[in-house]
Each structure stands twice: as structure tokens, then as C-alpha cells.
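Note to self: user wants both folds in one dump. Writing first protein now.
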Amino acid sequence: MHHHFHHFFGRHHGGGGLGRMGRGFMGGDRGDRAFGMGRKLASADLQLLILGLLEEKPSHGYEIIKALDERSKGFYVPSPGMVYPALTYLEEIGHATVEPVGTRKLYQITDAGKEHLERNRSVVDALFAQFGRIGERMDRVRRALNADEAGEESDLLRARRDLKAAIADKLDSSREEQQRIAEILNRATAEILGQ
């Protein structure tokens, strides 16, 4: 189950996304509805999330990745290839400073970064709140999938098993039939996730 959530967001400061969570739930560019199916987290939003974390404490890049992982309970684990270019960009525009500490770099928010963060506080708060809600939802799904360790199968596990069997039965069906099934599954996924 967990691997389905691991592509999610795509580009860094050039414009839209983050990390390894491909078809995710985060909003696209500002005009899009946030966290919609198939959307990506805008690069500006990743930068704001990073500034929000740097406001709490100076951090190394890997600490930022870990903090986003923890806040989303494993739902959003951005790749270094997303976080480090965003940090470099924040440094270039004067929103963060970097200080070498041994072999690593410690990033701190600047006054300009704090001002930018304050102007966008509602966006940052909404993103972190959404991480929390998604994390709670994922926890519930994990609990349901691991339910009834005593041996009784939960309704959800039984439905999951039946769905897998039904899909396996249709693997040799026509392209049109496979397309029909894919549309059903996409609608079901959106409904389950409350999109």
C-alpha cells in the first residue's frame, strides 16, 4: 500500500513539485485546488515549507527531508534532488543563509525569508495542516489493513482480496474492458481518499 504514495511531487524552484510522490494529493500552482488528485506541489510551496521548518530551527538538508517525512507520517518523503536545489534557490534569493559545519551545510532563515514566510503564513499553515490530515488518514488505512491479527479478516482486507482477484480475472480482457475497469478504479481511489 505504502509504495503507491511514493512519487508525489516533481520539480523544484523552476516550478512544480517535490520528491518521490508522483500522482499525489498536493495542490498545483496557486490557482489550482490544493491537494487534488494528480496535482503536484508547486515549487513555491516547497520553498515555503522549508522556510517554515528553518524558522523553527536551523537545519541540514537531510533534517528537512526527515521533518517533512515525520510531519506527513511517511506520506511525503521528498528526495534530496528536490530539497537541495530548493535550499540553494532560497540562499540565492536571500531567504536563507548557509554555514559549513564539518562536511555538511547548515541552513538558517534570514530576515527577508521570515518576512516572505509571514506574508505567506496562511499557505504554510494550510500545507502543514494538510500533511497532518493525510498522515492521520494513512495511519487509519494502515491500521485497517493490519486489523484483526487474531486471524479474523476485516471487511477491508476481504474487499481488497476480492478486488485483486477480480482484476486478475480481467487481465486478458479487451483493451476497452481494461479501460472501463481502470476508470472504475480511479473513481474508487478518489472517493476513498475523499477527493
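First done. Writing the second protein, which came from a different request thread.
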Amino acid sequence: MPFRMLNLILLIIFGYLLGSIPSGLLISQAKGIDIRKVGSGNIGGTNVLRALGFKWAGLTIISDVFKGVVPAYLAINFLTLDWQVVLVAISPILGHVFPVWLKFKGGKGVATTIGALLILLEWKILLVWPLIWLLVLVTSKTMSFTNLLMASFLPLAFWFSSFSLTYFIFGFILAILIWWTHRENLQRIKEGTEPKFKLKKSP
């Protein structure tokens, strides 16, 4: 097996296993709570925020972002072809959404996707992206709606960042994945029952 192909396979496996570490669940369990039985039942940062407050949600989000940063960084430095980098970059996101340790029932993949974006997107887009995200969040006060709207622009963000068809398709795949993981949120948005975003934990 060629050395570069071996690198690709090892990085994909590493990315998936790293991504499948359930940061939110481990942090909540350390605080005496099973986050899967609180709020929406999701193991991501938004649900941790509702249950444990900003500090622990921040730690969860940083951990989940880190899971996306490391494989993408390694891919950029050890692989040369766009399609190889993309396969490695998506592996921790798939690991987060479908973790082997939790019977393939994980989080929504947003923070881990952001980690990959920090490495793969051009710096000018990275400067504008959080400003738009914050503006939408402040306006809508709904985290899921904000994430879904921003995910919809991922194909364009990748195109203007790289002008690569591979990355453009990658953006579409990420957008579809994030919309799929938010299908329950979409139903609640439709019914008007989706919780509003707050910076403090629920009483």
C-alpha cells in the first residue's frame, strides 16, 4: 500500500475516533448530570449551556471545536489532494454525529464543523463568518435557526475560499448533514416550541 494512502486511512480512522469522544457527555457526567436526560437530550454545547451554564458549555464547545481542528490540520500538512483532505476533515464530524461509543447517537456536529472550517477556510471569510453568525443569533435568538442558516452558506464559503469544486461539494455535504442532525429542531421551529437562546442555565 502506498505510503500516502496509508496516511489517508490512518488519518480518517484517527479523525473519526477523536470526533466520537463525547465531550459534552463526559463533562456533564463529571458534574453529576447525564446530559442525554436533560433538555433536548443532545450532548452538544447548547444543551450543556441550558443544564450547566456558560462555563461548562464553553468547555464543551472548545473541546468539540478542537476535535475538528486537529484532523483538518494534519490533513493539510500531510496530504496533497483536495479529496483526501476533505475525507479526513469530515471524519471527526461524522464521529461526533455517529459516535461508536454511544451506539452512533451523538451530537449535531456544528462545533466540530467549525473546527474544520478554522483550518480550511480562507482567513478573510473566517473574519466575516462569526460576525454574521452573531448578528443572526442576536436577531433570531434561536441557536438552531442560526446554525442552519449559516450551514446553508457553506458551499459558497468554500467556493470563494478555494474555488475548488471538491471543497464546494464538501460544503454541500456538510450543509445537508447539519440540516439532517437538526431535523427535530426544524419540527420544533415549525411548531413554535424551539427554546430561545440564553446565556445562563435553566433553574
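Dump finished. Worth passing along: Residues 3-191 form one domain.
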